[in-house]
User: What shape does this take?
Amino acid sequence: MKLSDVFTAPVALPVIGADVTWAGPNPAADGLCIGFDDGTIRFFEASNNYLSQPQKISPSGEAINSAAAVAKLDFAFSTRSDVTFIRAAIPGQTSRSVYRGGAHDVVATRSGSFVAALGMKGLLLVHPEGGDQQTMYVTDAQADDLYFYRLAALSDASGKEALVFANRRGGVGVSEFLGVAGQQHVHTMTFKGLDVVDVCAVAHDSLSAVAISSGAEILWIKDASRQEDPVAMKLQGVGGTIYRVQATPQHLFVLSSDGVYAWEQLIPRLTDGDGPVSTDAPLVLPAEAIDMSVYGNERLLLVMAKNTVMQADIRALFSRPRSEGSASFLAGHRYAPLPQIEFQRFAPVWHRSDIVRSTMVGAA
Amino acid sequence: MPFVQNDTVHEVVTVRRGLSYVFTPKHHGGGANSSQWLPGLPFAEEFAIFDRADGIIPEPPEADDRQVADAKGNLYGYMLARGVALSGLTEIGTWHQQLAEFPAQEGNVAWHGYPIWPIAPSAPQGTRGDRCRPERAVFDRMFALGDITLAQRKRLMKGDSI
Assistant: This one.
């Protein structure tokens, strides 16, 4: 099975000009928000195939690497050089403020704050106020060597909020989110050789999350507001450099430099019991993609190396005959069938730390 | 880890231009807020990264040099994962850096280098955060040399690991 058998390009982007580097849902309409390598964004509306003109976001002109929205009012866009906050109160009238430092990732919490991962600098926390002045909180630098690479914001039905972090060799970090001001307590869990490169939520109204390492170890976090060790298991058959993990309440998706791997109904099996997890071989789709996101638990988005966003309906993805896509990569991009595989949970020796970082307040 | 207490000039110079190289305490165990070379990376390997950044001339008849530099003459170096082109880059810094910067030097002054941040640190107002991150032309050069794929180039431009 080829990628083009199940993925389509929902929007035609110009061949010449800025190159797409990030894509996610359009917060205002059914469609996409697309970020480009020159620091601009464009909105696409699927209902009428409307693609907005480029809007300059990043003052540095760097590539958009992440974006988040609170309601349809406040937006945050990150690049490796700055994080821009925009309030669009009235069409045509926006206010913006800029944090002049790079971030790997930015997310929005249910309570309406933004949190960005600043690498070794820690976290940037902002509760949008609008106007040209914005209070920003940055965690103080510590010698704890903890690196914040990616993060996910979680919440349950009661309104309790938590953050989960990909802390690279620091492992996975969890933190109950109590607001942007004050201290940020992060409980980290790692083991020898672990390098966590991505985390994701699995469902709305859930404090569960999945993390993935560069070595294709999956960490299942049952409740990110609690300090329980994750369930660890090794994903077999994944080739290339691991880039992203995404999940729905049922399915798991991994993007590597080789392509997309999709496990149908794996998430419920992770949560049940303590024994081995049996699953069908993953659906494997070779792709040169740089980023991946799940859209409304229904669609999978890929940002391709060549100026394209590809989209697939997740149900359609798994409705294909399994034999078409159950394959593993071999050298030279040839494929061989994979048998049904069993993921064995393993019990690493966890090293746990509790980090407290104070926040410094500033305005921009 | 090869800690350095005093500036230590390497006994070997680069193949292409004969540049000398100095290992500095600041980036070898000193300065908690300074970029650090990865523990366990031998001096010889650090210098090899610099040597390749300066552009070792391949065996004839190829005359093309493989220098990776920005418009200001700063050099950029890296290690290919498993030594194989297009398979990613090896981490060389304690903060997961995969590139090293070697600021251009005048005259016969020895060069030095440090792993460069994948993302820019926060900068004081007015400095615009332009420090500590390579120009995108550097990534274009790495792609043109066949060392990284188009996808890897785009990920580096975003501040992502490859």
